[in-house]
Specification:
The complex is a heterodimer of chains A (388) and B (202).
Chain A (H helix, E strand, L loop, with lengths): L1 E4 L6 H7 L6 E2 L2 E2 L5 E5 L1 H27 L2 H6 L7 H9 L6 E7 L7 E6 L6 H17 L13 H13 L8 E3 L5 H16 L14 E2 L15 E4 L3 H6 L12 E3 L12 H8 L9 E3 L11 E5 L9 E3 L5 E3 L9 E5 L5 E2 L2 E10 L2 E10 L9 E3 L1 E3 L1
Parallel strand pairs in A: 4-20, 7-9, 9-10
Antiparallel strand pairs in A: 1-4, 2-3, 5-6, 5-17, 11-15, 12-13, 12-15, 13-14, 16-17, 17-18, 18-19
Chain B lengths: L42 E6 L3 E3 L2 H7 L4 H14 L6 H8 L4 E2 L3 H8 L8 E2 L1 E13 L4 E11 L8 H22 L3 E2 L16
Antiparallel strand pairs in B: 1-5, 2-5, 3-4, 5-6
Helix pairs in contact in B: 1-2
Classes of the chains: A alpha+beta (388), B alpha+beta (202).
Amino acid sequence: MLRIDIPERSNWKALAHELGFHFHTIDGEPYWKEDAYYQFTMEQVERDIEAPTEAVHEMCMELVDKVCHSNALMQRLALPEHMWDSIHHSWKSGQPHLYGRMDFAYSGDGPAKLLELNYDTPTSLYEAGFFQWVWLEQAISQGILPRHADQYNSIQERLINAMAHLGDRIENRTLYFSCIKDNPEERATVHYLQDVAVQAGLKAPFIYTEDIGLQTGAEHFVDLDDLPIHALFKLYPWEEMADDAFGEHIPQLNTHWFEPPWKAILSNKGILPLLWEHFEGHPNLLPAFFEDANSPPLPAGWVRKPFFSREGSNVELVTPAGHREAVGGPYTDSPWIRQAYHPMPRFGNNHALIGSWVVGDRACGMGIREDVGRITKDSSCFVPHAIV
Amino acid sequence: MSKHDQTPHLPRRKRSGRLTLAMMGASAFGLTACGQPPQEEQITEIEFDEPKSFQSVEDCVAENVYTRSACEDAYEASLEEVPRFSTLEECEAEHGEGACTAPTEEQAQAATGNSGGSWFMPAMMGYMVGSMMSNTNRGRSFERVYQEPVYRNRQNQGNWNTATNQATQRITQRNDAMRNSVATSQRRGFGSRSSARGGWGS
């Protein structure tokens, strides 16, 4: 794994605009960067990223099954009691899921270490699945990369297959897509997923999360025309859904959700200590524990994360050398876990994080984010990769 | 490099051969709404104000709440709603002895456009008028008048207060039914809380 400086494609900003990638620059700061790329060998990709991703995914599925059959574990993960039946039912009835992303610390040497799972509302999907692919094709044709260069990326192809599969199972092949208002990046990600759904032969109407309607006597949540929503993709986390005003109606209504309720188990950082408990010593796992009232102040070599947090918020770490780093945020009302610190590789000033994608149940691609800090945040840049 | 360790005639590729976007390009970006059927306008909410009772159209006009034509229209409409019977006996069996009458010429004119009616009805004592506001899912509001006849029957024996109370009860029942028949959806039950950075992706 190397970070190699290369020329940018001359036309990439115009192209990005043309392809709907309007958030390549966020608040004046670059988000997409292509003045360098991360170089991997095929062996690194297949042995160190792809295979472990599938292995960890299997372990996760095993744990979901355990948690679904244990009220004690549901409680331990701070899942609200009124959701237990929905979670259990969605798992028992085999409700399919679409996608997830694992974040690994990996330096090119030794096993990749799982830092966390983003299995409910993962983003950076368009960048990884589509724009990165376009970059590789063009970089080859413009002579920036050698002809034999490749990329670990069948994300979009897998998404289309997974959507087609979902389409066969949902009413009128219609899957609504939703995200909250006033967030152009998330709207673009959902727009991309709608695009994928259309390519898979689905009807893919959009509704803002805030506009989802509840109608007395209806069996489904309803759209703005008060028509039933049989199936809905939401870029909005389960822990928030459950606490929202309509949360208590979720178990009573027949609307199918993507991701399904059982994903609440995996989008929760409490899954990390459970993974360690059940698969202690697995080379791709880091030691992790639930924090309790008796836990001492965070010792050197440990990271502290809230159960529910996004984009690095409220994460605190102390390196083995005693260097402390923390990101503030609003996620202070859930329990915490502690995870052994594992350094991300450093290239110049940048720490690189591997986002490894799972679509359906298959590992199928990756995207790299880098940040000058040791905690990856929403402002961390996306840098493409190639197998050379 | 490991890639070259593989069987040379079967080049392995880790990326998809061909990707495209169906609708996300520049020309299609932002056009999602066009792909959706136009929103049908529907009434989503109805509000009723307190009805007022009047013994005559002139009474209504004098109150200075409704225009003369609104008072007249409401009178005609409430007259339409008074139960009708083809014989006096049938009417009295239902509404009590002495409660019924044939329509006056004026009433027959108002109800049918012709003078002279061939029906019997409980004697009309007056009518009630109120206004209702309908709001639609497109954010528009419509106001219109509703009405109810006040007529004599066995229970009220021609007592004005009792008769208007009965009319008010009929109005309440009907308005409740109308309110319940409207597709009242609640919104903003999801996504009302804001996140750390105004988004939920991770």
